[in-house]
Amino acid sequence: MTLTKAYAAQSATSGLAPHNIERRALRDDDVAIEIDYCGVCHTDIHFAENDWGMSIYPVVPGHEIIGHVTAVGKSVTQYKEGDIVGVGCMIDSCRTCSACHEGVEQFCQEGMVSTYNGQDRHDQHITFGGYSETIVVSERFVLNIPNQLDPATAAPILCAGITTYSPLKHYNIQPGHKVGIIGMGGLGHMGVKFAKAMGAEVTIFTRSASKVAEAKKQGADHVIISSDQEQMSSATETFDFLLDTIPVQHDLNPYINCLKYDGVHIIVGLLEPIEPALQASVLVMKRRILTGSLIGGIAETQEVLDFCAEHNINCDVEMLNIQDINTAYQRMKKGDVKYRFVIDMASLKDS
Fold first, then answer.
1. How far apart are CA 56 and CA 127, in angstroms?
2. What CATH number did the domain enclosing 271 receive?
3. Is residue 8 located within the same domain as residue 129?
4. pTM of the prediction?
């Protein structure tokens, strides 16, 4: 075991503060990583504050991890000391079920092991995430960071990136498709970039007219103010796909009416009950599909990193010292970040 500095929440109301954790000794297939950068996801807040009622304290958040390899187990073949690597939202799975064999480990039939607040399959210890100096992960769940990517801005690709890339790839977005991105936060702005790179005609739905210029700057071809009834009415039955990144309860009915027949509405941001209720007629009368998507498998996460390198796609980030994480959480709750915080983990050495 190695003692490691970290930041942790001790309760739903404690906020985050310095905390020492232990990292395991290397197993044969393990990669030891010194963490250079860690993105801040809204899920981190949910677990720190026990919004979903499943947090196991202390919670050390962080699942958008970029670092460099410091040691490898004796059976590791893909990585060596000094390599720049990433760790995303999961660090293990059963590896034997059909989902794991098909490369969608996030749907592991025994449950994926989350990077934090999960339970290690071998020693049953609770996992700790990237708000820490180091992490030890099985080689199979470590990702190569292409040289073309800036490591700091690449960090959110490991969650915000794969969460939006995976459903667009799954539904085979291509030139000629009309894609609407609902919401323009950390997920939404990445969805715009991916859909554009795939050749689609992209529209951002936003509630605020003040965001029109920014939406165009992100690459959107069109912008619809979702609070404007006339604009929403004019969009009726015009889209092939809608990627819904809003993380709080919202009315899906007006958006689904914007889909053509056989159109697909993909939820990636909402994990709570749909409220207000969905009118089944908006699906039935046009054979529309309401579906969801969860991150992506390890192979697909490597694919999105390579896709970003090929298409010069990075996340728009604001760099942060770990000492300011509680302030960052409050700003995120207000939507006051464009579009993702990334922690410079060198600041942790000063804690």
1. 10
2. 3.40.50.720
3. yes
4. 0.95
